[in-house]
Amino acid sequence: MTFGQLAGLIAAIAFLILVIFACILLNHLSKTMKETNKSITTLTRDIHYLSQEMEDVLSNTNTLLDDINHKSEQLDPAVKAVADVSRSVSEVNDSLQEMAEKVRMRREKRQFDRGIFKFAGKTIVLEAFNKLRQHRKQKKGMTNNE
């Protein structure tokens, strides 16, 4: 065997090994592609069912939203009435507080006036008593001097 034949034999064996590995790789690639195809088919079917379910959910959601909007419109007058009652109660509360403040101020003024009248009355009585005592002392003094 010559050097050229040996090189050709090595190249043929290398090519054979390359072809065997290429066949193995293509076989694995073929299996992978089949599995991928199955997965895609399953995903497509699931997405189809999922999209049908989503359409049902969206339809139900729209129906529910319409129902809620309708009921909300019916509740608007009640909410407004409650707000009006709340405002009225607040106004009554403010009026009652003002009235209570006026009553408290009048009571304090009356108590102050009573205090002044009591003080004035005591002062008048004391002055009258002092004048009476002085008058009696003067009378006694005149009786004793005579």
From TrEMBL:
Q: Which PANTHER family match?
A: UPF0478 PROTEIN YTXG
For whether the record's keyword set contains Membrane, the answer is yes
* Pfam families membership: DUF948
Q: What is the name of this protein?
A: DUF948 domain-containing protein
Keywords of the record? Membrane, Transmembrane, Transmembrane helix
Membrane-spanning parts: 6-29
Q: In which domain of life is the source organism classified?
A: Bacteria
Task: Tell me the InterPro entries matching this sequence.
Answer: UPF0478
